[in-house]
């Protein structure tokens, strides 16, 4: 029988009766077509990273991006802005695409016993694009500029582990006391809690240095052409909605000089930008291009044999926030039942056309030392087991469950598929709701929120802890006076055992031992409790001509490694 | 006459004022612009500070009057996302939209008026049926379908530049404007053709045309001089208002072709919940529409002696 | 040639309904603006002298039909409209598959014997989805049309009959709504009421009624001065009775014509809203939604059916209603195109 749909109470006369009569007369639309494969094959293989070799100067690298929020470090947010900011600025440390931490402006760094105080020694006499020398004061200046009250920054929370941040941000202190200039070339940072991975954080553009000539964050004349210390500098101003041009900084001395003469970013319409990138690549106007989902298969078939294909599993997980504190998902069994009723492989194949890989963990494979394949044992499609678990958890047919997503971001189709699977496999009554992102956020935060909410998470810093702690630690719930969640743990998962493990991991200096603790924590939160429901592992595809460009790899922010690329 | 014009201006001001209030209230439906950025929530303390920077912590009526006061002095405020002055952004994109609107209207006139005249003069002929059918079909096609098809099959072909064009290799405006102008004009030209045909048919039945013919004037003079002059009035008024609509920006068409005009600006502002831009563009669009309607009404009153004004 | 009634505060008198279907260059503005343009564009036809006969009598209907029949396109349009309505009403009998049922193992399949129009991005049978879309289009199209016409006629008659400040207030409201960009207004409304069919209808009614109100007002203004209304008034008929019994039947013809045109307008507007992502819920096979979900497939060879099929459905529906409106206009108003 057909299900009832919202909003169709107003159907034409007699139709209701007709529907009841004919539900059975309609053919079943299931099963694979003749000659098609019943067993979907999912996920395209990753391409191996390109080996970095010495190159020669020259070449203009062109690519399309969408309009960034900012390229000035004070408010760099998305991949596009990060891409430009990382070319313009060099922070204390740098992170290679494989996760290794290498020196940036700092030559070495060390922590006290519990990782609550860090000391960075800087390379002497490196320079900003305007000739100023980069020293410890430059970093303090840059950080305080971001954290300053009324800076307008939406990303200053990257500094919130530093002592004195809160007082300074609220305007109650003249400086951020935790950042101390010990000498011209030594920076000491005191943290509010132990963090043995703090140097990773300093790779974020928000923690870039600023010259004395820096302009206020409210002045577009400066923020559209910021003065950095990176391997590239601005060539003219950022022409909003048109493009950004960077040229090599010839006097770069914080590391090896870049090979590329220039980088040209063309700013595209966000609605069909990725399609335009592909078109531009085919027409020879872009050297690096994304593509819309439907084109991934055809593009791979066409370009992989020509050596113009790049595929990489990256920093990101699509998941469902599952409201742990409210029925019906207030038991691990209920959450596992829902999870096992979702056929991730069929969605990945049918809707994403192989472009997304089903997730089997929350810490993605990008972290080979902490990734545990299959740690989410309930991420397997098993409708029979799902039904059993559902019965145990009281998730009986007819139970109402919210399924919410944000509109206009490409989530319409796959969530519609999940809806149907939950209805078919568990007989749930799904309240399917698409709303703008701000409403989506409000609904998740609100006291008493229940059900499933689509969300994605990408770590800010390349560490497993940046998945586990924000998404599942009790400290990340941050209830305000009205009972609203103001942290990132919307699921409201709260488990002292897990909290203790991640706290121990953060304070563990030894990397191997730390990774073991991350793994143990994930086995509890995901393997046992399924605090959130992992769905798809983010995978990215790019068109790039490896026979033309050397050293092209994709970095942590899914951008090309500009500082290494050279024209063959 | 003077009284009529004054009254119309008064009404226009009223409409624009009401629009500002409507937009001001409407944007609250869009939600808190500072609560989130990208796919992330902004920490409440920071969001609060940002709201204060833009005066959103003040009482509603105060916000509205501040906004009105600024508007009166031509200050459109600073947008939320990148902190750019909205007036500058609007001025940047305005010439593009003006060009697009004018070219579209020009295409309307060329295609629509000529097709309409031919159809009317050769009534019931093959060309008449052709014009009727083609224009009806054209009117039935939604603009976004037409735009998407043009983008997929025509961009980068012949005189039509490819979309996108890389930074630094802009094409001349008259090329850039072609595809979006055609997308907009096809529906409108079809409309003009039908209007022209109907109007011309009616004029051709009028006594003075019969007289002109009886006097032995050539058909060319009758059509070209007497009939055209009288039958073009409705087309001119139609195109005038149409221009008013187009000047407010073509939301869908401009976005599809990534044409950097008022409509594309609005499109991105809506997607990014950027209230100051939305408010400015909507008020501007209403203003353009109201002013052009006003001009058309006054023109119409002058042109058509049968209208009695008091 | 008699003079027109004073133009309603400078807006060109809406004496004659638009002869053409509504043209909206970009959907940015409300339906009314362009209709109004069309109305204003048709030259000074008088209203008061035109319809003397009460159009309700059987003889009149037969007359109308005999004139309607002469327009072949209008007859074709009527047939298509009938087919669409039939599909909408009997959709469950006509769809080989449940239009909501997805099959992720068989998405974006080209047309075949099993699926005559192929399948969409969720593996739903495209033909079934389109027929369901027809039902939705008719429910929304006709529902919106009826509501806007009822509201519009009521306010229009009130404004035209009462004149004075009532008239001024109502007309200023229509001015504002007609000048406001439709899509932006609709986005506001949908954000307030949430996503769904009803909010879309509400938005379209809010921005749709002013046009019929203006048409009705123009008619009423002219008719209230006519001899038989004077006569009715002189024998002491109440205002309500005069409006309902004497003015409405004589004024309704252009509104009816407009109503038919507006169904096509609403279908396109709903599709445009879905295209912008503020239409009906994402898993409802609405025509505009079917197009927007295939937006990314537009340059993938072999997937043309994904957007071509729903686009054709919209075009055919809009055309059919336009033809009918055209024929009705001719049939109801013989003087306009007659004389040949």
TrEMBL record, chain B:
What would be one Gene Ontology cellular-component term for the protein? plasma membrane
CDD domains in UniProt: TM_PBP2
Annotated membrane-spanning segments are 12-31, 100-121, 133-157, 177-196, 235-257, 277-303
Protein family (similarity comment): Belongs to the binding-protein-dependent transport system permease family.
Report the locations given in the UniProt record.
Cell membrane
Q: What is this protein called?
A: Oligopeptide transport system permease protein
> What is the protein's species of origin?
Pseudonocardia thermophila
Which example biological process does GO assign this protein? transmembrane transport
Domain ABC transmembrane type-1 residues, every copy:
94-300
Q: Which InterPro entries match?
A: BPD_transp_1_N, MetI-like, MetI-like_sf
Main localisation, per the record?
membrane
Topology with regard to the membrane?
Multi-pass membrane protein
UniProt keyword list: Cell membrane, Membrane, Transmembrane, Transmembrane helix, Transport
One Pfam family linked to the record = BPD_transp_1
Q: Does the keyword Cell membrane apply?
A: yes
From TrEMBL, chain C:
Residue intervals of the ABC transmembrane type-1 domain: 134-325
| Alphabetically ordered keywords of this record | Cell membrane, Membrane, Transmembrane, Transmembrane helix, Transport
Q: Where are the transmembrane segments?
A: 73-94, 136-161, 173-190, 196-216, 255-280, 306-328
User: Compositional bias of type Pro residues: which residue ranges?
Assistant: 1-10
User: What's the main place this protein lives?
Assistant: membrane
Q: Where in the cell is it found?
A: Cell membrane
Q: Which InterPro entries match?
A: BP-dependent_transpt_permease, MetI-like, MetI-like_sf, OppC_N
> Which residue intervals make up region (Disordered)?
1-58
> How does the protein's chain sit in the membrane according to the entry?
Multi-pass membrane protein
Q: Does the keyword Kinase apply?
A: no
Q: Is RNA-binding included in the keywords of this UniProt record? A: no
Q: Which GO terms describe its biological process?
A: transmembrane transport
Q: Identify the GO cellular component terms for this protein.
A: plasma membrane
Q: Which Pfam families does the UniProt record give?
A: BPD_transp_1, OppC_N
What PANTHER family does this protein map onto? Answer: D,D-DIPEPTIDE TRANSPORT SYSTEM PERMEASE PROTEIN DDPC-RELATED, OLIGOPEPTIDE TRANSPORT SYSTEM PERMEASE PROTEIN APPC
* Homology family: Belongs to the binding-protein-dependent transport system permease family.
Which protein are we looking at?
Peptide/nickel transport system permease protein
Query: What is the species listed in this Swiss-Prot or TrEMBL entry?
Result: Pseudonocardia thermophila
């Amino acid at each position: 029988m057909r299900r009832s749909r919202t909003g169709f109470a107003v159907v034409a006369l007699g139709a209701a009766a007709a529907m009841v009569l004919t539900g059975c007369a309609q053919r079943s639309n299931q099963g694979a077509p003749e000659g098609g494969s019943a067993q979907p094959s999912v996920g395209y293989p990753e391409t191996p990273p390109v080996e970095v070799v010495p190159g020669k100067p020259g070449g203009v690298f062109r690519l399309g991006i969408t309009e960034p929020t900012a390229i000035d470090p004070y408010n760099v947010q998305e991949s596009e802005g990060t891409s430009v900011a990382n070319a313009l600025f060099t922070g204390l440390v740098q992170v290679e695409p494989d996760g290794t931490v290498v020196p940036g402006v700092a030559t070495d760094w060390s922590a006290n016993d519990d990782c609550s105080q860090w000391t960075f020694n800087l390379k002497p006499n490196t320079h900003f694009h305007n000739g100023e020398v980069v020293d410890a004061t430059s970093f303090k200046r840059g950080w305080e500029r971001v954290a300053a009250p009324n800076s307008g920054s939406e990303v200053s929370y990257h500094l919130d582990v530093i002592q004195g941040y809160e007082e300074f941000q609220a305007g109650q202190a003249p400086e951020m006391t935790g950042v101390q200039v010990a000498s011209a070339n030594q920076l000491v940072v005191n943290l509010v809690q132990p963090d043995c991975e703090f140097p990773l954080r300093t790779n974020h553009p928000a923690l870039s240095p600023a010259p004395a000539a820096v302009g206020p964050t409210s002045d577009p004349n400066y923020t559209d052409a910021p003065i950095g210390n990176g391997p590239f500098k601005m060539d003219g101003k950022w022409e909003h909605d048109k493009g950004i041009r960077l040229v090599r900084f010839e006097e770069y001395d914080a590391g090896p000089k870049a090979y590329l003469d220039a980088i040209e970013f063309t700013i595209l319409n966000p609605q069909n930008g990725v399609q335009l990138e592909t078109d531009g690549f085919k027409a020879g106007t872009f050297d690096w291009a994304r593509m819309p989902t439907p084109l991934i298969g055809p593009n791979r078939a066409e370009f992989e044999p020509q050596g113009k294909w790049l595929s990489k599993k990256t920093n990101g997980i699509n998941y469902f926030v599952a409201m742990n504190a409210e029925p019906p998902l207030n038991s691990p069994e209920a959450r596992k039942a829902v999870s096992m009723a979702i056929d991730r492989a069929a969605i990945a194949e049918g809707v994403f056309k192989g472009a997304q890989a089903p997730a089997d963990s929350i810490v993605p494979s990008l972290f080979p030392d902490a990734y545990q394949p299959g740690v989410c044992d309930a991420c397997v499609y098993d409708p029979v087991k799902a039904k059993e678990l559902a019965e145990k958890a009281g998730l009986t047919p007819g139970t109402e469950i919210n399924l919410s997503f944000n509109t206009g971001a490409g989530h319409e189709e796959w969530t519609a598929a999940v809806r149907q699977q939950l209805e078919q496999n568990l007989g749930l009554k799904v309240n399917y709701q698409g709303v703008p992102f701000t409403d989506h956020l409000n609904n998740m935060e609100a006291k008493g929120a229940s059900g499933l909410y689509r969300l994605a998470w990408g770590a800010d810093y390349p560490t497993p802890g940046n998945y586990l702690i924000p998404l599942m630690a009790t400290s990340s719930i941050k209830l305000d006076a009205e009972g609203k969640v103001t942290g990132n743990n919307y699921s409201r998962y709260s488990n002292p055992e897990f909290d203790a493990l991640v706290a121990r991991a953060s304070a563990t200096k030894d990397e191997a031992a730390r990774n073991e603790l991350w793994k143990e924590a994930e086995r509890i939160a995901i393997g046992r409790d399924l605090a959130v429901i992992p769905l798809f592992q983010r995978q990215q595809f790019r068109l790039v001509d490896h026979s033309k460009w050397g050293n092209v790899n994709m970095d942590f922010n899914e951008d090309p490694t500009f500082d290494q690329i050279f024209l063959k | 006459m003077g009284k009529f014009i004054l009254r119309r201006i008064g009404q226009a001001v009223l409409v624009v004022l009401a629009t500002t209030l409507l937009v001001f209230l409407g944007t609250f439906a869009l939600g808190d612009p500072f609560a989130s950025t990208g796919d992330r929530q902004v920490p409440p303390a920071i969001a609060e500070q940002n709201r204060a920077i833009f005066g959103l912590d003040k009482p509603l009526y105060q916000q509205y009057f501040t906004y009105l006061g600024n508007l009166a002095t031509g200050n459109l405020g600073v947008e939320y996302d990148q902190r750019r002055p909205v007036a500058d952004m609007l001025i940047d994109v305005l010439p593009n939209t003006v060009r697009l609107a004018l070219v579209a209207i020009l295409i309307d006139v060329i295609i629509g008026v000529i097709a309409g005249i031919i159809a009317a003069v050769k009534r019931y002929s093959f060309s008449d049926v052709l014009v009727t059918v083609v224009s009806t079909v054209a009117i039935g096609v939604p603009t976004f379908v037409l735009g998407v098809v043009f983008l997929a099959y025509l961009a980068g072909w012949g005189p039509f530049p490819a979309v996108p064009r890389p930074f630094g290799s802009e094409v001349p405006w008259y090329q850039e404007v072609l595809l979006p102008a055609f997308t907009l004009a096809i529906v409108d030209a079809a409309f003009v053709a039908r209007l022209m045909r109907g109007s011309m048919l009616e004029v051709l039945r009028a006594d003075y045309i019969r007289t002109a013919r009886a006097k032995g004037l050539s058909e060319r003079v009758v059509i070209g001089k007497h009939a055209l002059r009288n039958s073009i009035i409705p087309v001119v008024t139609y195109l005038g208002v149409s221009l008013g609509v187009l000047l407010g920006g073509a939301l869908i068409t401009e976005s599809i072709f990534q044409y950097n005009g008022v409509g594309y600006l609005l499109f991105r502002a809506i997607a990014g919940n950027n209230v100051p831009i939305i408010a400015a563009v909507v008020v501007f669009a209403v203003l353009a529409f109201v002013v052009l309607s006003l001009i058309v009404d006054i023109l119409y009153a002058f042109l058509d002696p049968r209208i009695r004004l008091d | 040639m008699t003079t027109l009634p004073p133009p309603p505060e400078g807006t060109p008198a809406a004496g004659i309904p638009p002869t053409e279907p509504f043209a909206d260059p970009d959907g940015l503005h409300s339906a009314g603006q362009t209709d109004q343009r069309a109305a204003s564009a048709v030259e000074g036809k008088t209203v008061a002298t035109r319809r003397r006969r009460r159009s309700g009598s059987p003889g009149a209907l037969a007359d109308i039909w005999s004139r309607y029949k002469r327009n072949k396109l209008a007859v074709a349009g009527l047939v298509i409209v009938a087919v669409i309505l039939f599909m909408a009403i009997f959709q469950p009998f006509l769809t080989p598959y449940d239009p909501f049922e997805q099959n992720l193992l068989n998405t974006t399949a080209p047309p075949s014997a099993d699926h005559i129009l192929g399948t969409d991005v969720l593996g739903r049978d495209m033909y079934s989805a389109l027929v369901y879309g027809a039902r939705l289009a008719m429910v929304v199209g006709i529902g919106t049309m009826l509501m806007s016409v009822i509201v519009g006629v009521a306010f229009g008659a009130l404004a035209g009959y009462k004149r004075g400040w009532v008239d001024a207030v109502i007309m200023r409201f229509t001015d504002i709504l007609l000048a406001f960009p439709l899509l932006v207004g609709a986005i506001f409304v949908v954000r307030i009421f949430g996503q769904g069919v009803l909010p879309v209808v509400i938005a379209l009614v809010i921005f749709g009624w002013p046009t019929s109100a203006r048409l009705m007002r123009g008619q009423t203004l002219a008719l209230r001065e006519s001899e038989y209304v004077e006569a009715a008034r002189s024998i002491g008929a109440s205002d309500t009775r005069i409006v309902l019994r004497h003015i409405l039947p004589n004024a309704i013809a252009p509104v009816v014509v407009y109503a038919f045109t507006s169904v096509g307008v609403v279908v396109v507007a709903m599709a445009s809203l879905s295209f912008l992502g503020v239409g009906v819920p994402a898993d409802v096979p609405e025509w505009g939604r079917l197009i927007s979900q295939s937006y990314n497939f537009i340059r993938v060879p072999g997937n043309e059916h994904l957007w071509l099929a729903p686009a054709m459905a919209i075009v055919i529906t809009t055309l059919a209603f336009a033809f009918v409106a055209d024929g009705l206009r001719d049939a109801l108003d013989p003087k306009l195109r007659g004389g040949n």
